[in-house]
Amino acid sequence: MRTHETAKIACISCTHSPFTPPETTEWVLSTLSNMKGLTHFGHLGDVFEASAASIHNDSNDTGIHTLEDEYEHAHDLLSAIRSVLPTDCKLWINKGNHDANLEAQDPRRVPKRFRSLVHWTMHPTFSGEFRKWLWIPYEKSERGVMNIGQCAFYHGFESGPSSDETEGLQMLNAMSPAQRQTYRLMVRGHTHRPIPPTQMRRTTRIPLPFWYANVGTCGPLNPVWMTRKDTTQWGSSILVVECRVDRPSRLVGKCWSAELIRKSQ
Hints:
Blueprint: E1 6-12, H1 22-33, E2 40-43, H2 67-83, E3 90-94, H3 97-101, H4 115-118, H5 127-130, E4 134-136, E5 146-148, E6 151-153, H6 163-174, E7 184-188, E8 195-203, E9 206-214, E10 237-244, E11 256-262
Parallel strand pairs: 1-2, 2-3, 3-4, 6-7, 7-9
Antiparallel strand pairs: 1-10, 5-6, 8-9, 10-11
């Protein structure tokens, strides 16, 4: 029997509104609606594509869309997800690099004097939904992490073939000593490559008491703007985690279990 000290968490990443495939949205909603006892739901970032705020907004060759189109699509997606979750489910979003581009002090994007007006939490129509979610900063530090028990959730920064493991260790080192405990599960998205919970290793023969996982992408799997790059390892998935809720320093042993649920391609 689940107690108040146990969390059941589901998370996804990289929906890239307005390019989330409808069939992927249907799969996410159907899968979540069949889960019982969820206490937390996290979106690990890149909610928006953000190309509409770039001077290169036609570079994806899918036609021009507006930033308001991105906000409307993301609003409807997050609202639909929330509708299939328990009413007391705790909601959070780790901002991704695409989301952070809308806030970046970059003249190739939204001019500084207009940023406060176009921010998604300020939109007169769609901000109500966005404000129902806790938004975690896009920072390679403890501020950019959602910690629940021994599990740490963040968007991700590097995209190399071994970056899940190396960045997991980097994020651990960036945490305070109270959070830098053994048996941690480091979960991210960003690379679009789903990876089930995997133990980190010092060498092939020496395991470390840490794990990493990647939830892949719920965005397009073969976008036209990636035709010259390898997307064969991309996939859509949901990570489901059950863990004890307490400070990591007070937890003894591995106090979590996790399963990666992949959408068939």
